[in-house]
Amino acid sequence: MYDPAALRALQAILSTGSFDGAAAQLHVTQSAVSQRLKSLEDRVGTALLRRSRPPEPTEAGLRLLAFAEAVGLLERDLARDLQGLLPERAAPVRIAVTADSLSTFVIPALAAVPGLLYDLVIDDQDHSADLLRAGTVAAAITADDRPLPGCDAIPLGPLVYVAFASPGFVDRHFRLGVNADSLAAAPALTFDRKDRLQRAWAEEAAGRPVAFPTHYVPSTYAITEAARAGIGWAVNPAGMIAPYFEDGSLVALVPGLTLETPLSWQVTRQVKPALAGLTAALRKAAAAVG
């Protein structure tokens, strides 16, 4: 068994970004925080933090953090089941979400579930499952509908994507239509090097794979604004772009051509009961934008 006080010290250091902050949060001395962390590292047999500013977790630290968060969720459920006989505290939960889901339906879902603190990790839907496999998150939005070991997979439905650009950009680069040649010359806007949406849409539009220049902009909102400014073309959730189609600041590259990315909410069975409310909220919010 791991000392709960030592686990809380690890959580507090990482949530506040310092040993001083952890001491203030836990109402103990900085020396006590350091001693608790050392005892935990001695128990595990390896370092749990990199002593940087702010401190960063090692791989082992991430695993212990996920374990501590799971314990916190179970304590929260126990307190509720005992009808208030135990003090209830907000339990932080580390979950992986995609940038696009965060920009569309995740925030309304989080807002619908009071009493939880969230530590959100942003990753591509094709890679977020790796975080679950590594045990560094309690749940994740993924593109894989097959339950991972120790998890249940709940379908959220597809997220529908459209390709778009400003009218001026379309006039400059696609005056003769959207095809392999025009796409190969027109700069795109891509979230990061894991993001394959632009490539998938271009292949669908051109009928074959297309290599094209791209800007890397790691923000769904900033990608939309960059497209409105005429910097490039992009692919984002249809519901997010609809208002800009209505005001004319953006237009579809190929009207009617969309991509659908089925999403699943994968949650570890250990914390599934504690996250039942969040699961229900995510399903409802995702259905509203699907």
Describe what this molecule looks like in 3D.
The chain is of the alpha/beta class and 290 residues long. Among the domains are: 1-85, Arc Repressor Mutant, subunit A; 159-260, Periplasmic binding protein-like II (D-Maltodextrin-Binding Protein, domain 2, 3-Layer(aba) Sandwich), CATH 3.40.190. Helix content is 46%, strand content 21%. The strands form three sheets. Strands 3, 4, 5, 6, 9, 10 and 11 form a seven-stranded mixed beta sheet that branches. A hairpin with a 5-residue loop joins strand 1 and strand 2. Helix 2 crosses helix 3 and helix 5 packs across helix 12. The protein is elongated. Residues 83-89 have low confidence and may be disordered.
Please identify the structural class as seen in this structure. alpha/beta
Report the principal-axis shape. elongated
Mean pLDDT: 88
Q: Which residue ranges are poorly predicted, with pLDDT under 50 across at least 5 consecutive positions?
A: 83-89
Total count of strands: 11
Q: Classify the beta-strand content into a percent band.
A: 15-25%
Largest sheet: 7 strands, mixed
The helicity comes to 40-55%
CATH architecture descriptor of the domain at 159-260: 3-Layer(aba) Sandwich
Q: What's the number of helices?
A: 12
Question: How do the helices and strands follow one another from N- to C-terminus?
Answer: HHHEEHEHEHEEHHEHEHEHEEH
CATH uppermost class of the domain at 159-260: Alpha Beta
CATH superfamily of the domain at 159-260: Periplasmic binding protein-like II
Rounded Rg: 22 Å
CATH topology of the domain at 159-260: D-Maltodextrin-Binding Protein, domain 2
How many angstroms separate the termini? Answer: 44 Å
